Request: fold
Amino acid sequence: MGNANRATYKTSIRLTKTAMEKMGGFGISERSFFVADKPFKVFIERYPSNADGELSVALILDKSENVRLAGKDMEGSIVLHAVFTNHNLLVTNLTMRKSYQALGTNWQREEYLVFDRSRDPAPVSLINLINRMTPAKESSDYVKKRIGSWEGYLKIQERGMDIPDIKTSYSSLSFSHDFSRITLKGCQLKDTEWRQLKSLTVRLTGIAGDVGTVIKAANRTVEVEIQSYMVKQLREKGLALDKREVVFSNFAALSQVRRLRQGFANLEKGLAVNPNLDRILFEEKPPVKPLRSLEKLSFDNRLNEFQQKAVSGAMAAEDLYVIQGPPGTGKTTVISEICLQNARKGLRTLVASQSNLAVDNALGRLLANKDIRILRVGRTESIEEEGKKFIEENVGQYWKDHTLEEITAQYEMREKREPELKNALLANEQATVKLEPVYESLGRAVEEKKHAQSQRQAVQKLLEKEQLKLATCELEKGKVVTESRELAHRLHELTDLIDQDSALIDGKRDSAWFQEEHLRIHKQIKLYERVIGLPRLEQDLAVKRQDLAVVTERRDQIAGIIEQKRVAISEMDSIKKIDGLLHVLKEQRVEETPTITYLINRLEANRENMAEWGKLNQYNEQVTAAISYIEKLLAPAGISVADLKQQALAKTEAYTSAEIDEYLEKLRRLLKSAKHHDSIVLQKALNGLYKRQNDLWRRGAKLKAFDVYAAESKRAFQDLKKHLCDELGNQQKQYRSWDEKLLEQQEKKQEDMAPLEQRHRQMPNRAELPADLEAAVRDATAELARLQKDKALYEQTKKKIADHQTERTQKAAALETNDARIEAMNANILQVEKAVKGHEEELLALREILSSDVERQLEQAAKDLASLSFTKESLKQEMKNLPLLQSIQKKWLDLLAGANEHDLDEIRKLYIKHANVIGTTCVASARKDFIDNYPEFDVVIIDEVSKATPPELLLPMLKGQKIILVGDHHQLPPLLGNDTLEETLQEMIDEDNGFEEKKELEKLLEESLFERLYKNLPAANKTMLAIQYRMHEDIMETISPFYKLERDQLQCGIADSDRERDHLLESPAVKRNNHLMWLDLPNEPAYFEERMSGGKSLYNAAELQEIRALLVDLNEAAGEAKQAGRIHMDQQKSIGVISFYGEQVKRLQRMIDQELHLPHLTVRTGTVDRFQGSERDIIVLSMVRNNQNKQGDIGFAKDYRRLNVALSRAKELLVLVGSSQMFTERAKQPETRSMYKHVLNVVKKKDGLKLLEKSRG
Amino acid sequence: MDRLIEELRTRVTENPEVSIVNDKVWRLPVVLYDVGYSRVKRLKMDILMKMLLLAFQEADVRRAATLSDMLFVEELFISDLIGKMQRTGLIGLEKSGYKLTAKGYDYLAKGIFDEEMDGDKTVISYSAAHDQYRLAEDDGHSEAGDELPVYRYPVKGSLNKDRMQQLLSKELSGGEEGFQTIVSGITSCVEHETVYIPCIEFQLYDQKQDIFYARVWNGMSNNWDETLEKQIEARELVKWRKAMMEQPVL
Reply:
């Protein structure tokens, strides 16, 4: 990825003292960080945050930056350890990272940074970027924790790993009969070493490469299984070994385990191509991305619906797709198609599998297609025949063979093509010649039709115009005719009306008469009305007269009053007393003006003052008299009157008149009493008197003299008189003005009355008038109204007649005009009608031409011609190219045919360079040379996944962006070495009773990675291929229950099983229609299983004998079928004889090799586990277990997956050999029994159960 | 010969469980042919490049795809080679398509035209039992005397010159300095004689495993001969067992 697609972050950095010192140590100048001509390539790795919660990070500078920083090339990469403090990037330390430590892992981010010295905070985008990262350690820990559960697999393989190479001499070396084994004797080994030998690889001095592996080491004898590819070399050199020396080594196994461990480490370090791989492998719900939507794929292979779904799904998946492929369901076809689709998209695919055989099987069945370039990578000697053609040195040859075949086919096809071409061209020409005149005449016809069409259009237009004209004319005419009719009618009406009206007003009256009559009646009415008004007039007159009298009387009253006033004034001088004045005031109703009121009040006040003065004077006299009396009385007592007086006057007191009266009275009584000589009483009385006298004097001092009051009263009296006179004068004046007003009224009333009196005098004589005047007035008024009406009618009629006459004149004229117009129109219509008819005739004539379909015919003809011409052109082109192509291809064929190794060298290089399907084993995909050549793949397909352990699967998985897993968890789990996991485990337990991890390891057996992924993935990311094409449907029925829990049930894709899976054999034991059989052995001691003395594996001799007979029988049947021509003479029936137990297989193989001659059969033997992935026409299964032990143990045979594999290898015929009682009744687990019962039931149903007579043997 | 037999006897019975049931010496017929062949010297040149040069000479080709269809060769390969030839100046792109340059013509001529070389002669042996042609080596193998019986399962083979030439091409072609020498044809082929190769056969029995098997020493290849062993085992193994069963127990 170039730096162009990435943003460059610019950030300031600060360095701590430590960091700067370290820098110095590495010879890096600080300046070099800031000389930013271009950004630094940096791998950012997040660290767990420090104790302060600060974001902590390592900036690993790419090695290419070393020269820039240190001025020299250095080993390793410079790492800046930094924290973000207050948004500033602070470099706290600086270290070197060893160059072998990977950069660009999934836990790191590759970015470009520019550093500066500013104090600006680091960009938020950079902080966010780091914040979003998961600390590398967390990611690693996550993987470490989860991958720990896979450790068990490695532990099993690592058992006793750390063995140094053991070198020893031997005394003798012998080969087994088939060169499959070597027996070494006389080895000089220590006891401990003997125990370690098993599974070690063996090298013999003098022979290059590993010879094989130790399978048995005991009694100073070592048994070695020879690698098949070593056999030839050993046959040749086995005798000529100078030095008898052997080396046992653990290297191969060790390096294998080391690779597996490296896989773990790489996942931990985040070195998977798909950054999500760890989560996909370990999360409960694998976090796969949703599928891309793809255009519909076109498939090269013929695929059924499930296969299509699998291929489409695998192509659309982003990261993981899982395909479950039960036996015979065409997994390889699907893989082939996926490879091809990938190749078409320019993607490179890795096809990996656990074993070389499986890889070679998968590659061998891939379609030969020029888009796919298959390369088999691996150790040549371990690659099977199927895969050999794809190894580097053979791909040139493979390519040549394939190309040659293809070109030959094309070339030969083209040879036959030439005469075909010629014929085709000739036929083409003839057809053209025939078609051309047809085309031309059609062309003319079309022209004619076109002309007719335009003609029709013109005529149609004219016709329409004329028709429109006609319609208009007729409409107009209709209108005019209606109009005339209406006019005539109206004329008639008018004449009638005039006649009527004339009759109505004829002769008698005229306007003048009406006027006279009107005046007369009007006058009469006026007269009557006047007479009717008389009583009222008289009444009015009386009222007026009365009013006048009232006014006159009033005036007389006023004149009296004025006189009265004048008299009052004149009498004023004579009045001497106030009462007199008050009387006048009251009498004359003089208003009390403020002046009058004042004057009266003054008079009153004066009077009161004078009365007061008098009273005070009186009291004073009495008191004074009393004082003088008492003074006299006291005088004898010698009391100083002056002191008393002074004493009494010291205090002023007020006394009312009544109190003084009372006091005096009291005093009088006192003086008359006995006490009148008591001086104290007298003194006291005198004191009271003084006080009262003083008071009186004080009060008198406030008053004026009496005569002053009198003079004042006199003056006020005069003023009042004068004032009264003035008032009375005013009153007089007022009354006079009122009188004037009344006079005025009087005169006016007299005036008003005059006309009334006049009218009254003029009234006619009543006798001359009708009695009832009111009625007379009514009659006259009615008469007048009638007259008015008659007059109006007269006027109206006269006007109507005049109007009608005018109208009559007009209409008569109009009628005349209309009649003329109608005449003209009739002529016009006649003319237009003629024209319309003419056009219609023309159109009728054209219709025939127009109704023909010449255009379509012409079009068809043109199409045919074009197609002919096109065909001709392409034929001609082909014809032209043919010799060229033929010549070029001929040359090519010759060149290819004559090509030698060297000629193909360049092709080989190209092929390897462009190889897009690489096949290798899981473990080999982790070899260093492979990783160097193929660091990553777009797609990794792993076949037979369920047979590989998770650590093995991990290796190819690490390399793929997308991973496609193909397998079947209902078939057997991985093998370890030669043994099943169970066997290995059993062995480990036997060897070491304290094997504690047994439970943990057993758990591994339960959980299959494939199964877990398959179950937990969303439906879009997985498919089960549910149609099988291998087995006869009878055979398939035995395994259906194993898949009944899947979404789709297993179906048989073979249309007619009996025909397509006919084994063609007919024998006493096997009939043509037998496809599923069980040779049932009794559960009796004679047929029991046996154990090798000292061995662990089981065998069953009785079954061996049965199988011997069966094979002989089948061989004869095959021979017979050949004789009968059912089977080709060269053909052999392929038979697999398989068993759950290795010992039984060994014995079967020996029996077949040694005791049987089976020329018509190709027999292969093997354990069920080894046979997984293979198929045969006929399978014989030796079940071995048969006993009457209490445990009812059937060992390996209880695993349904093993049974599934065993049952599903046969295409045409499956024969089970064993005791049905043992498996269906004695087996310990009920589910095991029911599993075998199902098989037995199907066998019975298909009529395939053969019971063995107990007497045999 | 006897010494060889003894040594072999020791070998096969190295395993104490194995005993020799029977041994035989017989002769295997091998036909020798005197073969004359022609040789040419030719510039080393890979065929696809040669084909492209030829095609550009003959046809107007502008696009790699066209040739890809014609030759049924992956377009990538052709594009690769076209690029290479353009870089080395063998071809140039003209209006009508790629055309050879003078250098290209020259180069092609060298690739096409063979320089005749002197023919040569050799002897080829054919073992019908193995259906195998080999270059007969002059020395090394001993001839079997007439007194020995002939191999009891003779196969009739027929002469196949193509396979002979394949053998010669494989064995005798060589090259130097950008040139290769190729056996271009067989000029003569005369059946010269039939020689008889002595073979030593052991019929063996492994008591422990209850197994019969054969070992045949081929006197020409000086090897245990698997082909012959299998031929014998296939026909006789059951017989040997039967014979042993019928033997009175000693």
Notes: The mean pLDDT of chain A is 85. DSSP finds 38 helices and 32 strands in chain A. Chain A touches chain B through 47 residues (CB under 8 Å). The two ends of chain A are 77 Å apart (CA to CA).
